[in-house]
Sequence to fold (388 residues):
Amino acid sequence: MQPFSLEMPRRILFGAGALSRLPELAAGLGRRVLLCTGSGWFARSPWNRRVRELLAGFEVSALPLPPGEPECGALDGLLAQAREARPDLIAAVGGGSVLDSAKALSALLPLSGKVEDYLEGVGQGRPIPGPGVPWLALPTTAGTGAEATKNAVVRAGALGFKRSLRSLHLLAACVVVDPELSRDCPLPLTGLTGMDALTQLIESYVSRKATPVTRALAREAFPVMLRALKRLPERPDDLEARGAAAYGALASGISLANAGLGAAHGFASGLGGMYEVPHGLICALFIRPVLRFNASAIREDCGRLARSAAELAGSAPAAPLPADPVEWLLEEIEGLFRLYGLPENLKSFSIRPADIPEIARRSSGSSMSGNPVEVPQSVRERMLAELL
Fold:
């Protein structure tokens, strides 16, 4: 057997109704709670009120987070506010940006310096020396899998980079995945975040850093996520489908945290640092040219994913597998684009063609290194140009 390590949150609670365990879980960590929430659709959801009711017996300091992905300057200001609250724990209720912000606050509250000082490849690159304030993750979207990862993605806007705070000390003390929390998630957001999770399952499965455990997890979760994404446009409030999507996202987070990703997420780092393009859309757009580029190296793996999808549908082994499983996977992804009405390119984001070489150069981080095939600068530029 191939040697491997597996890094995960200490505890994961999954299923409808899991939210009701929040008081018990929080009580095990302290009394002063810093409640981090977003300002989007969930702020108006009845589940937002329910979270606050469950924390009524605690000393709660609310910290509404600004919209968009975490950014260095904004996080520095949030750190100052969080330190005034002196929390025993952080409860983060939201999508990937909220969870990543909470991770950063959790790790940096006891430390000095700016957020930028601790980012990989930026500033001083200081390590996270030890545990910070424990945090609880309550995801409200099925997308990034940030509830299960040990990194927080942060934009260094002034420098035009996206980089990570990364440490085992960033793992959540407990993850509560209750699909009820995502039931009112708007359908366009469901599509964007879901495509991110699906891309993560594909890329972590074929990653050159994959292990037997991550491959088993991603292969089992991929058809579950795919089927959920096909069902939700017809019935957005289908709790079973929401639960399946939540499971797919959680599995994608565990898998990527231990196996890495690939070129589609490499582009998300480079392009997302220079332009404000939704992360999920970048992944959805680039997974298609990346799959075509990787085709000869991943055809067998895509065949296994196709077989898993057939097994879940109850048609294997009677139904023949696709002649070209890479093309099958591309057709499935194209179908999701149509179902959710996702943009087919990046034209609406006013990306300057002159920036293509620099975007391609910056798309060379840790995600790109997991791609099954080396992606040269010239190929990255071509892929970018085709989508502008």
Observations:
- The first helix runs from residue 22 to 27.
- The chain has two domains: 12-181, 186-387.
